[in-house]
Amino acid sequence: MATKLQPVRGTHDLIGEGFRRHHRVIETARRVSALWGFEEWATPIFEDTRVFSRGLGETSDVVSKEMYSFQDRGGEGITLRPEMTAGICRALVSNGLAQSVPLKVFAAGPVFRYERPQAGRQRQFHQIDLEILGSAEPLADAEVIACGWHIQRELGISEGVTLEVNTLGDTPSREGYRSALIAYFTAHRDALSEDSQRRLEKNPLRIIDSKDAKDRALVADAPTIEAFLTDEARAHWDALRRHLDAFGVPFGENPRIVRGLDYYSHTAFEFVTDRLGAQGTVMGGGRYNGLVEEMGGPATPSVGWGAGVERLAMLLEAGGLTPLAPRLVHVIPVSAAEEEEALRVAGALREAGIATEMGHKGNLKRRMERANKAGARAAVILGESEVARGIAQLRDLDAGTQEEVALDGLAARLAR
């Protein structure tokens, strides 16, 4: 007996209710982002490994531990994308669009990270992504955040989700802050996790993002960046908060948000919830001003966010917001003699925009049973007499009523 094959660990099938939730998230994000003037892009799911090793930073967990990288048959280093932003910035440069900024981009699709699978965290998962490329203004930061909040409200999941914002300052701000963090964490080096001891030498800001319990105890008393902000960085931070107020987006300040990738500056933010257990972040991002340059393009200040579709779909499920499957009309020929006419009727209904099904076999009783089991809203029954008179028996499967309807008026009757 052949081995029963299963999905690879960390992957999952999207079927039925699961797919409908997934689809609702992406289509809502696509619709709302278009209202805000974002254009959809689609980049390849694999890239030259350097797109991510340069863009995300060698010290990030994604690059050092989680990327699916391999050599293809031509010996090229290839990586399945672990996030969307670096590929979008590469596309900006590759397609000669750096002179056309600012550009507002929406994207959606699968991403890949090798990590321990758990609820809301898979090795192949899906993201929606929003970027404003080529704008240094704090208004751009506020706009991507407000659009993300709008998407959550349209999904009906914003209750219980909180926006937390922070500033990472500009380069001079971070230099002063970096020195202060090195001094603080060096004094507590022996208490740091092994990962954070390595980060202390390369990128001490990443220690702030550590999930290790020992590290988090030390982070609670670590210095914050507020005292090191330059006048320019402080002005950006103040303007962001004013703009969020003007957009009507509620937020709180969290000086411990640094995000997990190395390319962020100025604004960092997360939408968090306690409704998903340990996986509390549902949308996060910030400003990045050097990433396009890493791809070989000109200096292009940008800002954006990514959100896990699976986590947003979990919030839909938790809120009882799973979309219903479309209710079909079943066309039922009484015998084989009426099948050709039934096919024509089904085709006409579909052309009129009415979702229609017609079974491949079975007598009237069996076909009616299938229609009821499938939750059909109506059955169109065609027998010899009906075909001869150009009518159908239309049975309302909710009300249990039945009426004769002329075939040329069937679509209009069902539309009502």
Automatic annotation (TrEMBL):
Top EC group: ligase
Residue intervals of the Aminoacyl-transfer RNA synthetases class-II family profile domain: 1-326
EC assignment: 6.1.1.21
GO molecular function list: histidine-tRNA ligase activity
SUPFAM superfamilies: Class II aaRS ABD-related, Class II aaRS and biotin synthetases
Catalytic activity reported: tRNA(His) + L-histidine + ATP = L-histidyl-tRNA(His) + AMP + diphosphate + H(+)
A Pfam cross-reference name: HGTP_anticodon
Keywords tagged on the record: Aminoacyl-tRNA synthetase, ATP-binding, Cytoplasm, Ligase, Nucleotide-binding, Protein biosynthesis
The UniProt record lists the keyword Disulfide bond: no
Keyword Ligase in record: yes
Location within or outside the cell: Cytoplasm
Record's subunit section: Homodimer.
Alphabetical list of HAMAP family matching this protein: His_tRNA_synth
Family classification: Belongs to the class-II aminoacyl-tRNA synthetase family.
Protein name: Histidine--tRNA ligase
Organism: Sabulicella glaciei
